């Protein structure tokens, strides 16, 4: 451990510090990494210095930005270091607001707020606390992906530190195959310290959407699921389905969160097949871009144990979802401390993302034609509950895999648990990714996040 520190201690910027490992708060405590040190980086250049020193001393390391990754693939122990890049927060828009360059610690909220202040829109993800690049390097789902494409489709260039500690700027033209690998399996191929991303100039008055919580009694579950299954989400539409404690009475309930990039009147028409089922509460309204993610803020609460499981869905079957509801209720009712347990299903328009399939493999993200991603999130504090929580998540996953409408199970890397087969995570990109891994990181230094070998 001391070896790497001795190599860099007199070379790091004064903005970089080493903090007590006990202060390393993450979104989920379940299977969290247990490093010997956490280096909080204050300067992009220090990332390269630390990775170089770690390589020379054979010290394992993990990059941490938003600290939201819940996978159980971390093997980092007291021999290893977390390189915390969350303080790298610079954001710069170009004069016509068509591009934005930002550092790796920038969260969705940071970028959205900056875009709002610049009369622009960027296509970021749906939870404020997530780092833009943490989500993007695995694909990056976004409410506006039907119009603009996924987060990876926003990338123009990436400044990375490679597995050897060398700084490089990568564009789709400069290194086609490394770009392909970084855009879907990024964490295995480099540490991105900053990126340039597409931005869309837009006056604040036009930068709005119709959205909000719509609550249903659970007796309507089959109707709601059938309506979601039948609904083709246009490019300007997105929606979420939640099984969670009601904001009204704390009891388990079914919530739909429709999202439409337009007026309330048209939004209601677009989602009429769901709204006509008869909600018990409808809080939808037209709201500004810088508040679109606010409804998801409770999910950003850090701490507690949240061993989550996911399935990518092309279809949703009411019978399977009744079984999922029953699993949810059983777990929710078994443990008072698990009352934040949630099943979240995010559904996206595949209009723009499926179209970019035709670009013939500019990115390694494999699931552009998946409509919905379901995530079972058991949420509690006592490790004694772990085995029941894991069983609950696995049961939900089984019901959904059987009704997913896909040839084989698919698990979006950023939502996956870590026990899946690698082909479920990387899909058809797996063989080529493994080949490129041998080329770009033969010593497997970048091997904490769904390692490719
Ligand atoms: C509350 C919540 C909401 C979410 N909502 C969405 C969503 O709307 N859309 C979506 O697509 N995903 C979403 N996710 C999943 C999210 O994309 C992943 O958890 C993502 O990995 C988090 O990145 P992070 O930097 O915040 O967390 P971290 O734990 O810091 O990062 C996760 C892993 O990503 C890698 N990584 C992070 N930054 C870099 C970097 N700069 N360079 C190289 N590797 C890096 C590291 O291997 C790290 O272990 C959500 C997660 C949570 C907890």
From TrEMBL:
PROSITE patterns linked to this entry: FAD_PCMH
UniProt KW keywords: FAD, Flavoprotein, Oxidoreductase
Cofactor(s) listed: FAD
Keyword set includes Nucleus: no
Molecular function per GO: FAD binding; oxidoreductase activity
Residue ranges occupied by any FAD-binding PCMH-type domain in the UniProt entry: 31-202
Cited InterPro entries: BBE, FAD-bd_PCMH, FAD-bd_PCMH-like_sf, FAD-bd_PCMH_sub1, FAD-bd_PCMH_sub2, FAD-linked_Oxidoreductase, Oxid_FAD_bind_N
One Pfam family cited in the UniProt record for this chain: FAD_binding_4
Domain of life: Eukaryota
Family the UniProt entry places it in: Belongs to the oxygen-dependent FAD-linked oxidoreductase family.
The protein's name in its UniProt record: FAD-binding PCMH-type domain-containing protein
Species name: Xylaria bambusicola
């Amino acid at each position: 451990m001391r070896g790497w520190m001795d190599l860099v201690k007199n070379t790091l910027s004064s903005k970089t510090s080493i903090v007590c490992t006990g202060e390393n708060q993450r979104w989920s405590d379940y299977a969290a990494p247990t490093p010997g040190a956490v280096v909080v980086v204050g300067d992009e250049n220090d990332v390269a210095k630390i990775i170089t020193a770690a390589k020379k001393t054979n010290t394992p390391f993990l990059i941490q930005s938003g600290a939201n990754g819940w996978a159980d693939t971390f093997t980092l122990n007291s021999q290893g270091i977390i390189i915390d890049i969350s303080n790298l927060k610079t954001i710069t828009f170009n004069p016509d607001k068509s591009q934005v360059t930002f550092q790796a610690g920038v969260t969705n909220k940071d970028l959205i707020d900056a875009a709002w202040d610049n009369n622009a829109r960027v296509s970021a993800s749906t939870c404020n606390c997530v780092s833009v690049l943490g989500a993007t390097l695995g694909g990056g789902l976004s409410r506006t992906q039907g119009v603009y494409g996924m987060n990876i489709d926003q990338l123009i260039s990436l400044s990375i530190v490679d597995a050897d500690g060398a700084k490089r700027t990568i564009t789709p033209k400069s290194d086609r195959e490394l770009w392909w690998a970084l855009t879907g399996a990024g964490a295995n191929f480099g540490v991105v310290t900053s990126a340039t991303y597409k931005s869309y100039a837009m006056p604040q008055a036009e930068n709005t959407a119709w959205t909000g919580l719509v609550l249903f009694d659970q007796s309507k579950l089959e109707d709601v699921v059938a309506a979601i299954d039948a609904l083709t989400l246009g490019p300007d539409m997105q929606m979420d389905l939640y099984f969670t404690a009601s904001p009204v009475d704390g009891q388990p309930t079914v919530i739909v969160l429709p999202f439409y990039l337009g007026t309330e009147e048209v939004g209601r028409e677009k989602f009429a097949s769901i709204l006509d089922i008869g909600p018990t509460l409808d809080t939808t309204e037209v709201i500004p871009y810088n508040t679109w993610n606010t409804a998801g803020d409770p999910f950003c609460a850090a701490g507690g144990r949240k061993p989550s499981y996911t399935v990518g869905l092309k279809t949703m079957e009411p019978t399977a979802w009744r079984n999922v509801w029953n699993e949810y209720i059983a777990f929710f009712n078994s443990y008072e401390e698990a009352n934040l347990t949630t099943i979240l299903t995010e559904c996206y328009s595949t209009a723009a993302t499926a179209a970019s399939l035709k670009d013939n493999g500019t990115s390694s993200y494999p699931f552009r034609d998946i409509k919905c991603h379901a995530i079972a999130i058991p949420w509690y504090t006592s490790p004694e509950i772990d085995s029941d929580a894991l069983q609950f998540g696995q049961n939900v996953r089984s019901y959904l895999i059987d009704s997913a409408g896909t040839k084989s199970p698919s698990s979006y890397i950023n939502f996956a648990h870590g026990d899946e087969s690698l082909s479920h995570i990387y899909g058809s990109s797996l063989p080529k990714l493994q080949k490129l891994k041998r080329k770009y990181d033969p010593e497997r230094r970048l091997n904490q996040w769904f390692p490719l070998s």
